[in-house]
Queue: 2 jobs
Job 1
Amino acid sequence: MQRISDICKEAGCWLVIDNTYEYFMYDDRKHVCIEANHIVNIFSFSKAYGMMGWRVGYIAYPSEVEGLAAQLLKVQDNIPICASIISQRLALYSMEMGPEWVTNQVKDLVKNREVLQEALSPLGEGAVKGGEGAIYLWAKLPDKYMDDFKVVHWLAKRHGIVLIPGSSSGCPGYVRIAFGGLIEKDCRVAAERLRKGLEELVNSGMVS
């Protein structure tokens, strides 16, 4: 991240960092937040504290940069307008409680991650990326299946498991798998469907 920051600074560019999943770190990794006069850091209570849909967060920016605050307020006025009172109260309560609640919840996601990583094993060694932070895994499909939308549709229809096509995020030939928001029991059911689907995909293709 520091290298990216240095490149942006040299080029005279702003660096906007999304710290949405700052507490979602695994394997003893630590989140690091860097600051400089060309960096804007974005944080989310909605994601970090399980308040999806409440749309509340905050921005940390270099106050010494003249005129930046006014420009950020323009963004605020044209996108979310304002957070609701109940959202703001929940955010305040979250700050008072601290991140301990979140980190305890994150511990429960470790098993989900492991279960899904195993389910993705039919794709072969090195096919799975991510999992060091946040709640997502990226998996590369076999080279002959670059149409990830088609694979996702087939997995949903034939095996009852829904993934996100990588093309929706600019990565054709990949799929994205979320391991958050599931209790371990449900995650194991989903993982078994996924494993069977991928085994069939690799060995027999997208049979009807």
Job 2
Amino acid sequence: MIDAHVRTRYAPSPTGVPHVGNTRTALFDYLLAKKYGGEFILRIEDTDQDRFVPGSTEKIYQICDLLGLVRDEDPVSGGAYGSYVQSERLEIYQKYAQLLVDIDAAYPCFCSEERLKSLHEKDKFAKYDRLCRKLSKEEVQKKILAGEQYVLRVKFPEAGFTTWHDLVQGKLSLPNNECDDKVLMKTSGIPTYHLAVVIDDHLMKISHVLRGVEWMVSTPVQLFLFEALGWEPPIFAHVPLLLGPDRSKLAKRHGAKSVLGYVDDGYLPEAIDNFLFYLGFSYKDNSELLTLDQMIDIFDEKRIQRQNAIFDIQRLNYLNSQWIKKMPTEDLFLRLNAFIPSEWNDEKVKQILILVKERMFTLRDFSPAAEYFFTAPAVNLQSVLDQSGHTEDETKAWFKTAISVINKLIVLPTPPVIARSESDAAIHPGNSFSSENLHLELAKAQVTSGFTPKEAFMSLRVAISGRSVTPPLFDCMAILGKEETLKRLSSVFS
């Protein structure tokens, strides 16, 4: 239970489309804030202009909007602690960087790129050797007056330990000699992550910092800066890594991509939220379908797992299929529009959707499943005979009987082509062209045909669809309509 007012932040860098692990952390940030009636803030950390990718910021917003992660403060809507874009806060960082120098918590470093490179060539794991830390104030001033370029480095303790309580990982302690004097301000006057994040988290009154466990090693430097500036640090919560099923680092070969990639592949945002929620959160049933509001109710920071989470694309497929089944047809149809040809008839699409949604894993599954309703397949006579198990003449006679039965059924002006309740069935007269009457009349004809039900109806199925597996045959005929059904049956032996 958290008593303090909660303010969390999602602070991505616009260096590309955020990966799924980054978005999982954003979801946890949102849930923690909303669980305790707090604020969820979006901050754009764009100080690394060399890695900036145009369009990335817009994609960050798009992902948050798709997943329902509504911001209380962000660069667009603003807030009391803006700007929420780091590149617009440079004067603030420079002010505090100078303060750190003044209080002897940071120092100028004049080492050239060539010297630093040579250190790493000798030992690729070598930390900065703190050469410039040994310079006197007079030597520093002389170099500055001579116009030598410099960066600012943190004057991190060389001995001892940094200890803190992590909301997820528990008590942690790292030896200070494993950290080096990180660069805080570049020669250009642009801050690095280590400085900017500390200043922003304090000035924006961030209470909890949720981030991936890979960032844990940067915590000692940040805690040192908070202490040096006399500020209360936020509570850190380092959430587990996402690994592939083979326990290796999550990669594209495991099916990992950005949220936008999943949406383009036909996954519902609701299913993605659900899937991300279960990646690192301990819940009694990780196949239960949960809305975002339900996740807020369930969320408990004590149940975030310490162990790495396994990313299983089959779990996402399952959750997505269940959300597709659960979603009302009208709502699902609206989501489907981007995945179907514009010329397909809307009402027919909705009727087909009722039939095929039970078999869909993604929205992209619909078009292949529905294509034969709109384009007559090329049906090979032999494939029909293979299903009938009878001679060509016997099968032709059965088709002639089926065509005669269908011809006698009357097309009503506006009947529901598929009955889904007794009230629907009741408005179909006994001689109307409907799935119920097709079933009834063709079943009667089959009894005296010499064909088993499987032989009779599988041969008709292949004839109208070109497939041996479809939704119920008579529903398919009803959606195709009388004219198209007769046309396809007649063409087999023409």
